[in-house]
Amino acid sequence: MDNEKTISTLNELLEINNDRVEGYKTAIDETNDGDLKRIFTNLQETSAKNQTELRHEIMRAGGKPTEETKTSGKLFRAWMDFKAALTSQNRKTILNSCEQGEDVAVSAYQDVLEEEHIRDMNPEQVKLVNEQYRLIKAGHDLVKSLRNTAVSHS
Predict the structure, then answer these.
(1) What is the pLDDT of residues 21-45, one digit of tens each?
(2) In whole angstroms, what is the distance from residue 28 CA to residue 42 CA?
(3) Cα–Cα distance between 108 and 5 in angstroms, integer?
């Protein structure tokens, strides 16, 4: 096991969850739909729980948890702010933006679950990443389903 690689990998997942928390704060602010606000709040809470677990595991491994977000996440949130403003809180557009962020999160977890990263982790860390992946994937699938059924308004 390589502790530095493990800490770096867990910090990458922490960054994704930092992005997700910030992205859903923006999404909550950009919609007037009560059902979306509740869903986005739940998704944000999932990532807040993931953050806590990842921070704990990083510190347990002797590392320092990052407070950063990924540059792509910052760009995603800025794009979503701009797009939502232009479309005056269009449900489908907001869900499209959220799905793009969810795609990035799912992809990041899938990358970590590949053999090259897993071999550097202990069994508890692998279990944690797998559990978080299932939650992230469920959030992605929910957002995608809502997007697919949303009606676009001009």
Answers:
(1) 988 888 888 788 899 999 999 999 9
(2) 11
(3) 15
Residue 101: closest CA among 140, 66, 133: 140
The pTM is what? 0.87
| Range 124-130, long-range pairs (CB < 8 A, 24+ positions) | 124/57, 125/6, 125/10, 125/57, 125/61, 128/53, 128/54, 128/57, 129/13
Position 126, amino acid: V
Measured distance CA(137)–CA(59) in Å, rounded: 26
> Distance (Å, rounded) from C-alpha 13 to C-alpha 18?
9
Buried b (16+ CB within 10 A) or exposed e, 29-63: ebbebeebbebbeebbebbeebbebbbebbeebeb
Nearest partner of 147 among 82, 102, 86, judged by Cα: 102
